[in-house]
Amino acid sequence: MAVLLAGGAGYIGSHTAIEMIEAGMEVVVVDNFYNSDPEAIRRVEEITGRKIALYEADVADKEAMRRVFAEQSIDTVVHFAGMKAVGESVEKPVMYYRNNLDSTLTLLEVMKEYDCNRFIFSSSATVYGEPDSLPLSEAAPKKSVNCPYGWTKWMIEQILTDAVAADDKLSVVLLRYFNPVGAHKSGRIGEDPKGIPNNLFPFIAQVAVGRRDHLNLFGNDYPTPDGTCIRDYIHVVDLAKGHVAAARYAAEHKGCEIINLGTGNGYSVLEMIHAFEEATGIPIPYEIAPRRAGDLPVSYACADKAEKLLGWKAELTLTDMCRDTWNWQSKNPNGYREEEV
Ligand code: UFG
User: Fold this and answer.
1) pLDDT greater than 60 at residue 105
2) Beta bridge partners of 257
3) Is the N or C terminus of the chain more exposed, i.e. has fewer CB atoms within 10 Å?
4) Which of 76, 66, 63, 64 is nearest to 28 (CA)?
């Protein structure tokens, strides 16, 4: 039996493929390479020494997904496929709702046809909205979110919750990611955003490698000790291992569980810049810029439920996150492409 990684060529999917293969699981990848590169899967094969069944298809394409399920014995689906840029989602909301919701609905329908009952979803801490208290535990209410991208996560969680309520064979795990950073220790795979990075760490990495001359630090007047926003950064390899644990959990339990994947530690933007400089010896010039719309001052996880239910907790350090990001970016200055685009 195999685990289907929908969107498995992306940043989190490709790291999860490695951890699953190393844990003895078989994986099948479907990806349309809209925001990913087939080279990532070639490198996963190189790292693991295993050939991966790879389908180039849109997860929302029902006929294509039926072919995958007909050809492979799939018992678990991990749904990473989705558009994820906050700003773009504000400009193109219909495209975001169409794409992110359709792919989920198609997966659910095709899974039912093939009696596949385990679904792990890439959700986001964004569904918590503005926290009433910290750390954020899974018991905290879902609130209004700040962009269509966030609403797609919010809505897909609701769709999956309702689907479970109506089907007692289904097992769903909603993984709420905090801020994934870092790369595989080989430096062969990592985060490779197209265009100007939206997120902090890929931006810092591109400044370090000389693709951008400085970082704009969005706001230093937040109510935090150094005035910059605090987030729970988690190493992508720890995050990937959380998916291995979630897939095992889904095999043994029915129903729907919400599980945070974070470390439980918060670091400010300035602390992240300094940690990167210290771990790599490379200075990161930055300029203070206005606040970015929608940013919360502080967000970090309570990670207890993951440890209790999945037997998983994050192990890698902030230094590991910085060193591994730099190892990837310095060896692949233009990501998976050979030339700068
Ligand atoms: N930041 C900068 N400069 C940059 C990029 C980011 O100062 O060039 C700051 C942001 O203002 C924020 C912090 O770095 O304070 C982290 O920003 P990221 O964009 O890396 O991460 P976010 O916490 O904003 O985003 C994450 C996920 C999104 C999700 C969002 C919910 O990456 O998928 O949380 O708010 F939607």
Assistant:
1) yes
2) 173
3) C
4) 76
Q: Which of 72, 192, 176, 198 is nearest to 129 (CA)?
A: 176
Q: Is 92 helix (H, G, I), strand (E, B) or coil?
A: coil
CA 167 from chain centre, in angstroms, equals 27
Residues in contact with 1: Cβ distance below 8 Å, sequence separation at least 6, in sequence order? 26, 73, 74, 75, 76
114 is catalytic: no
Amino acid (one-letter) located at 316:
L
Q: Ligand 1 atom closest to Cα of 269?
A: 14
Taking the centre of ligand 1 as the mean of its atom positions, its distance from the CA of residue 200, in whole angstroms, is: 6
Coil, strand or helix at 107? helix
262/175 Cα distance (integer angstroms): 10
Task: Tell me how far CA of residue 286 lies from CA of 88, 195, 203, in angstroms.
Answer: 24, 19, 11
* Lookup: tokens for 77: 């689906």
How confident is the model at residue 253, as a pLDDT?
95
Q: Give the pLDDT band of residue 337 (cuts 50, 70, 90).
A: confident
β-strands 74-79, 53-56 pairing: unpaired
292: pLDDT strictly greater than 80: yes
Query: What pLDDT, on the 0 to 100 scale, is given for residue 341?
Result: 53
Task: Provide the token pair at 289.
Answer: 């810029």
Atom of ligand 1 nearest to the CA of 230: 15
Q: Is 179 in the pocket of ligand 1 (CB under 6 A)?
A: yes
The residue whose CA has the least distance to atom 20 of ligand 1 is 199
Average pLDDT, the chain: 97
Q: Taking the model in full, what pTM does it have?
A: 0.98
Residues in the chain: 341
Q: Are 20 and 247 in contact (CB under 8 A)?
A: yes
169, 134 contact by CB (below 8 A): no
Task: Give the Å distance between the CA of 202 and the centre of ligand 1.
Answer: 11
In this predicted model, what pLDDT tens digit does every residue of 275-289 receive, in sequence order?
999 999 999 999 999
Q: Where are the alpha helices (DSSP H) in 120-183?
A: 148-165
71 burial class (0-12, 13-18, 19+ CB within 10 angstroms)? Answer: exposed
φ/ψ of 204, rounded to 5, equals: -55, -45
